[in-house]
Amino acid sequence: MYEFHWGLRQPPFGTGIDPARFYPSVTHREGLARLHYLVEQGHRVGLLLGAAGMGKSLLLELLAAELRRQRISVVRASALGAEPEEFLARLLMGLGAGRPRGPMGVASCWRALEDRLIENRYQQIPTAILVDDADRAPRSVPQHMLRLAEFDPGTGARLTMVLAGRYDRMERLGLDLLDLAWLRADLEPWDLPETVGFIQAALERAGTSTMVFDDEALRRLHELAGGVPRRIVQLADLALAAGAGEKRTKIDARTVETACQELGLVEV
To answer: Which of 67, 72, 89, 100 could cross-link to 112 by cystine, CB 3.0-4.6 Å?
Structure first.
């Protein structure tokens, strides 16, 4: 624990998905705005794309929270490792429908899911289905995503599905589904000022207004992390721990490089 050494009330970089730690970089603000537009206009499918660690899951969680405040029925579910029955059950649970009665099966899940979507339509409640890790779904799941995308195509059906994943793996979803995408939101790596702003905001939230990284350390950290938020967090956290262990008053570039070597991100 390095908080005492740096005069912090709490760790500056938490674990897990926490919308309170969202940093409004240009790429994340634009991505969020595009997804809001997608849902507000009632378009059926959109894509949220970015490399690993770019904050897709956090952005989906933030979007879900904001849509719920607008009285939109929202479910955020991961497709990672979920076979069709489990994937559909996750959607049902997220939409508040619960698991269908009787023996579980794909057909019974679909009946229950269709009932909930039709109920929302009749009550004029828009529905947003946010699928995280869509690119890591088992091969049998994309056909069910396609069925959802084509469900009840009438003008009164306000159903939107956002599929999040990495650029290089989205083709696994199939062209039929990807061709339905109305828009895409691309999350790009941060520039140096955004990396610095993020670290400063994290330190202030943790209890200090002092920038404990010197300028060269910040430049090197950004360079080694490639502007990827998850890597920035990992490197900054390890550098703070290493600096505290050495009783430093400031984090320098060498400390950042040592942290990078320990993490095994890239060769220094």
So the answer is: 100
